[in-house]
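Exercise 3.2. Students should predict the tertiary structure of the chain below and write it as structure tokens, then compare their answer with the key that follows.

Predict this chain's 3D structure.
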Amino acid sequence: MKILQIHRPAGVMVWRPCRTESFLTLLIYLGCVTPLHIGPMISSPRSAFSATRSSSALGGTHRTVTFDRLLVNIGDDFNPDTGRLRCRFPGAYYFSFTVEKFPEKMLSVMLVKNGLEVQAMAYDGYRNQGRKVHSQSVLISLKLIDTVYLLLQESPNYAIYSNVGPYITFSGYLVYPESTSSVGYLNNHLSPPGLHLPGCPPPVDPQYNWRRRGAHEEPRSAFSVARTSSALGKSKGRREREALTFDVEYVNIGGHFNKTSGRFTCHFPGAYYFAFTVGKHPRRAVSVKLMTGREVKAMVFDEDTSRRREMQSQSLLLPLRRGETVWLYSQQDEGYAVYSNQGRYTTFSGFLVYPDSESLDRNFS
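Answer key:
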């Protein structure tokens, strides 16, 4: 039943009757005696897609990976015919993709931003008869009209396999829209430790005080990092466990991840999503664990010591308390290693999905 319409021009409450009814008269009377507190209608930016491909693609004939089935396209920001997402809402976006190696071909698929910047990649250099699925994910910052897509190595020695299954998927969504009062800095610069290149933000944003947040902002915490070099195990005996460190920082909302120490520290209790992908080094096994403190929560493992390079991925949700740390541990014995290079095979991401009541109560108080 239509009773009234509410308009808010320039912060003024206007009551416009739809019908002359006794109930309306009662509402107006109560509004004069006791103010009616009606919260503003807030429309948050939304952008999300998920697409699949049901046919194979050979390098040299296809470069940008396109898709023939669109499962979700909130905001219509993704074009399956071109395979590209075009950003309408600046902010931090999470992307994940899965591709399968074609028999007797190599695999090399890159997540690319604006046609120039390789963000992460999936790779398998073993040209055998078998087929194998590889996955990768990363959280990156996008500005207005930035584009993101998957790029297949153009040589005919590379190919991806799929059928009506399908094996090839690509998804992405806006995690946190950009806000000068809540995001702080988002960057995608590669800087050597201790060196600040012109135009690159410092490791900590001196212009932003995280304690002076808006009165009605939900807690935000997210990071995504990568390595551009391998990490080789060297020790035969036991020693203190060291966290895997990173030299590329895509996103660090809140500054809660320290890429030098390789550790994320929880500032807002709640449920967090974590995902990591590591490359296997030729002639070495790979064993990487996701740790909270000294407790193993998840891991990847491949004991193959052949010359092949491939990928291993893992992800999960974790409940965290304030002050808990999350980090990756790579087995440090000399028979183990993590492989990466400028293609960024090894990535680590995490973000707050749902803050618990403690964070919300403190933030809104």
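Discussion points: Residues 22-33 form the longest helix (12 residues). The mean pLDDT is 79.
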